[in-house]
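User: Please run a holo structure prediction.
Assistant: Happy to. Please share the sequence and the ligand.
User: Here you go; the ligand is beta-D-glucopyranose.
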Amino acid sequence: MVTAVAQRLLSQRKQVDDTLAHFSLNRDQLRVVRDKMRVELERGLRKDSHSSASVKMLPAFVFQTPDGTERGKYLALDLGGTNFRVLVVKIRSGIRKSVRMYNKIYAIPHEIMQGTGEELFDHIVHCISDFLDYMGMKNTRLPLGFTFSFPCRQTGIDKGSLVSWTKGFKATDCEDHDVVDMLRDAIKRRNEFDLDIVAVVNDTVGTMMTCAYEDSKCEIGLIAGTGSNVCYMEDMRNIETVEGDEGQMCVNTEWGGFGENGCIEDIRTKFDREVDEGSLNSGKQRFEKMTSGMYLGEIVRQILIDLTKRGLLFRGRITEPLKTRGIFETKFLSQIERFISTYTLIIALMHLQSLGSTCDDSIIVKEVCGAVSHRAAQLCGAGMAAIVEKIRENRGLEHLEITVGVDGTLYKLHPHFSRVLKDTVRDLAPKCTVSFVLSEDGSGKGAALITAVARRYCGGAQQQYLYSMRFSDETLLEIMSRFRRELEKGLSQDTNPTATVKMLPTFVRSIPDGTEKGDFIALDLGGSNFRILRVKVSHEKKQTVQMETEIYDTPEDIIHGSGTRLFDHVAECLGDFMEKHKIKDKKLPVGFTFSFPCAQTKLDEGILLTWTKRFKASGVEGMDVVKLLNKAIKKRGVRFTDIMAVVNDTVGTMMTCGFDDHRCEVGIIIGTGTNACYMEEMRHIELVEGDEGRMCINTEWGAFGDDGMLEDIRTDFDRDIDRGSLNPGKQLFEKMVSGMYMGELVRLILVKMAREGLLFEGRITPELLTKGKFETKHISAIEKSKEGLSKAKEILARLGVEPSADDCIAVQHVCAIVSFRSASLVAATLAAILTRLKDNKHVPRLKTTVGIDGSLYKMHPQYARRLHKTVRRLVPECDVRFLLSESGSGKGAAMVTAWAYRLADQTRSQTFNSGMSSVTPI
Ligand code: G6P
Ligand code: G6P
Ligand code: BGC
Ligand code: BGC
């Protein structure tokens, strides 16, 4: 008899143990979870895998944690956890640094959570209205931070469209809609008060910010509550779904979705599947359903039902309460696990659940709860280990010390959850020391801090005007296709007269082929320096180039005076050069790099269409610059062979780079001005006769937009720059992009920000108001990653302002936005040229080299990388090598001259033989 009872008990015990064994994860299994989480984190960050990643890694548009200088009075909403709160948060900075909060909790009835979107947002606004009445604040238009604890795809700090509802919410017509717009609309519908909605914030981000206000090491936010989620500060360079490489941005991982692609099926149990099937979002948030408060009770209930059905519990009787979904709240789980004495536990169970349990039953129930919550804590720990390891690797550290700000009822109320979580992280991420700090004040405080920062940098400044300087890839692709159409318009004979992008034939028909040789003079006029060079190309075994260079001044009064004086000056410098280099008596062929738009009908003719950049000498537009230069040289009595070729700097650059890389078929300049040339098929160049082979086209892309084509992306600053320029209405693309204008753009923005009190405490100095005082080279200095901020301080001090640390950060931010816009625009137009080349060649992938020159590209610390990255993103079907021209356009011009000279020589001998005369272009 005794044996039978014992056996029955033993068998019962074994069956319970076997059931719960599925919840016990060993170290190896947890390591696998950690590693899979890491894979999904990376997939979520990468552009190509983002859409299929189960961990969405949503950019939060929060660029830094608080630094204690935040201040002001804010309204905050906190929706999505157990409670819906409306708060006023008053933040003081300085020695009286403090945060005071007043809040009221409101209920969100079940039928509203799952009603229509309009009802939900009307209800929220009703609660705000009540709160404002209660606080006597109806008439103050406060800035609002909105903690919205659901996955949102953000495109800015105040824009976020709901990806999908989670937890207990399921209101209709909200998914894929912007929650800020929905809130604004509801405020309008009520028409009682107005609010300035500045930021929408996930609760993890709010929690991280709340904790970071006290502890600057806090760079991770964890919620273990109704839902489960983590955010952390990621390096911008790793977030491929957002433009920009500099600094950091908070990423809301939405790790609750982990496993949606089936990658953790091996550890999910049948109980997890039952909970999932009975949920509002079946198939979704699989990790969340194993780890968060909303579901742990449900898992326990499913196990209890199973054990009861098998006669192992409650004498096999399934009571009504046990059948009720949601009855087993997570707080019961916490309570049950906290009860030590079986007696109190039975009482509690009977009381809470009317489950009619016995002593054995209550022990089993406690074990079930323990198994479920223990697994939840371990899984969160494994996920956290993946995050901290990623941060450690990002920073290249042997050891990382970091703080996690945590909130959520599960973490706060459960007796063992936090300990198991910490133990697991310690075990699985041994190279990281991770401290967990409980957020005492909820996410509302963090949302207010974010609002304070956003209003300072974004709400005021970036929001209104800087924001429109950041382009999405969609916009860039649109600009790319507009430019592609412009290219085609310029190439066709019918439409060329009205095209802004002139697509000028250059009569250069191939890149250097290695046979060029000779002794040449190259003039190089139009960039930041006027150079004269002697270029010797020799051929002993290997082609080698020797160059001697002099730089000459081009004073303002000369470039703005008469054309005759300008060319006299050039001729004078040439005479000086020949004297200095003792070649006065040599008749060397001359190549003339002239970096302005010229119409050519042959290599040695260039009719200046219009001056650009700093030049404005009279009587030159419409004239052949070769003739003008010849005349000036003759006047000076310098002995020389004819000017053999006039070459745009882009063409010179392409030829210089083509000398080293035969694939080079594009030349671009990003310097004082900007422009590009590329090798086009003759059959498409309607302005030149002949269909065979290719010819280099000088696009003159600087004029893109002169017909209003770019008005939707130009800002008021661009219009100001244009009005104050030497050539208003012209070169509008160049004025958004090139070095001659970028410094001035930044200066105009800084003046506006200072006027609005967003910078320098509103102080504006005469230097700051002086045109040209902020140069493009200053942008390059300020954007240096290490000494950038101290450079900003130095440069701003020279402008007479005493910048605070915040001012320096804001100025650095402005510089980055302006220079980033430039790189993005050039990437778009260059991408259009690349697709054109690819289509011309009818190849599925284009492999090509782009030769580049120009001071902006060369000097700016981040420009090149940003440009390359953006081009690769816009045209993934092109493998592009970017080759910096080390020796300027002069070398390339000499290559062209060598060709021209050789052909002219041949023609001369033919002419001699046949009596014909003309210089055949190469
Ligand atoms: C925070 C917030 C909530 C958030 C919650 C998570 O403090 O202010 O908005 O969603 O914690 O906890 P819960 O357990 O309520 O889901
Ligand atoms: C090249 C040239 C210049 C050209 C310049 C553009 O190397 O040799 O003549 O115009 O680069 O750069 P910059 O920044 O000087 O305008
Ligand atoms: C949501 C997250 C949120 C988490 C914690 C999840 O269901 O998707 O956005 O952070 O719950 O509240
Ligand atoms: C000129 C181009 C030149 C570019 C770069 C532009 O202003 O119009 O001809 O290539 O500057 O120097």
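Residues 458-463, 912-922 have pLDDT under 50 and may be disordered.
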